[in-house]
Amino acid sequence: RSMTTIEIDDSKINKGYKLRFESAVENQKYHVSDVEIPLSTAGIAAKSEGKGYIRYVRLSKI
User: Fold this and answer.
1) Would you state the pLDDT for residue 5?
2) What is the pTM of this model?
3) pLDDT beyond 80 at 48
4) Which of 60, 62, 52 is nearest to 24 (CA)?
């Protein structure tokens, strides 16, 4: 498990942007869009399931 802090400007919320996580493991499959989260009020509040090596991503507004 890993926790990382990123800062997203409020002007990007609800404007059609997405936050995409890519993942890879050496000598194995590369997941271009393992998790994709819309930068919307609802998207930020939801838990987003991964499709590859990432189990899930949950964002918290601080």
Assistant:
1) 87
2) 0.78
3) yes
4) 52
- What DSSP string runs through 29-52? -EEEEEEEEE-SHHHHHSEEE-SS
Which phi and psi angles does 13 have, rounded to 5°? -75, 135
State how far the alpha carbon of 28 is from the alpha carbons of 6, 24, 38, 52, in Å: 28, 7, 27, 11
Exposure letters 2-24 (e unless 16+ CB within 10 A, then b): eeeeeeeeeeeeeeeeebebebe
Structure token digits, residue 47: 């838990």
pLDDT greater than 90 at residue 61 = no
